[in-house]
Amino acid sequence: MNHHERFELLAELFNSATGFLAPGKSVPPGLASDQYELDRHVAWQQWTDAKALAMALHFIQALRHHDVQHDKLSNALVLSDTNQILQERDALRLRIKAVDEEHVQLQADREKMVQAYTTVEGERDFYKKMWAIRGKALEMPCLTCGSTEKAIRLKNGEIP
Questions:
Q1: Domain locations in the chain?
Q2: Cα–Cα distances in Å, from 51 out to 5, 19, 21, 24, 38?
Q3: Rg for the chain (alpha carbons), in Å?
Q4: Is 132 exposed, middle or buried (0-12, 13-18, 19+ CB in 10 A)?
Q5: CB atoms within 10 A of CB 115
Q6: Considering only CA atoms, which of 17, 97, 91 is closest in space to residue 54?
Q7: Each residue's pLDDT tens digit in the chain (160 positions)?
Q8: Fewer beta carbons within 10 angstroms: which end of the chain, N or C?
Q9: Distance (Å, whole) CA 43 – CA 87
Q10: Alpha carbon distance 113, 78 (integer Å)
Q11: Which pLDDT does position 160 carry in this prediction?
């Protein structure tokens, strides 16, 4: 909302509340008089003062509410049990320590699994090679009849 729109809104509110046109608005020739200008000026001052007072009261109430909340929190802090806070802190530290230990254990388990997998991987590679050699040998035609129907053929060196 720009300045002009704000002024127009205030002028409409003032007019509906008091029946006067806001200062700065052109007065119709039938209403134009020195007395109207004086009455309008007094009404504008009273209306704006009332609005300013209402805003100030609202602000003061908000500050009082804030002060009440602040006092409640301050009293709660003063009356809080320091031993209970320390116990909760120590319990939290113990939970953090347990999680750290579990993390270390999980890391050790992971390393064992990786080591076991690489060992199995090495054995699997060995067996693949052996099957490949066996497959090559079985791809040879039969020495007696020359048939290749029953020869095992491997695809991509995989174990059948």
A1: 3-80, 100-160
A2: 18, 17, 17, 19, 20
A3: 46
A4: middle
A5: 10
A6: 17
A7: 788 888 888 888 888 888 888 888 888 888 788 888 889 889 989 988 888 888 888 888 888 888 888 777 777 777 777 777 778 888 888 888 888 888 788 888 888 877 777 766 667 777 777 766 666 655 555 566 666 555 444 444 544 4
A8: N
A9: 65
A10: 54
A11: 46
pLDDT value of residue 154: 44
Which residue bears the tokens 């127009």? 8
SS3 annotation, the chain: CCHHHHHHHHHHHHHHHHCCCCCCCCCCCCCCCHHHHHHHHHHHHHHHHHHHHHHHHHHHHHHHHHHHHHHHHHHHHHHCCHHHHHHHHHHHHHHHHHHHHHHHHHHHHHHHHHHHHHHHHHHHHHHHHHHHHHHHHHCCCCCCCCCCCCCCCCCCCCCC
> Which tokens hold the place of 146?
């020359």
Structure tokens at 11: 């002028």
Question: pLDDT at position 42, please?
Answer: 92
Angle between helices 34-79 and 3-18 (to 10 degrees): 110
Q: Is 146 left (phi over 0), alpha (psi -120 to 50) or beta?
A: left
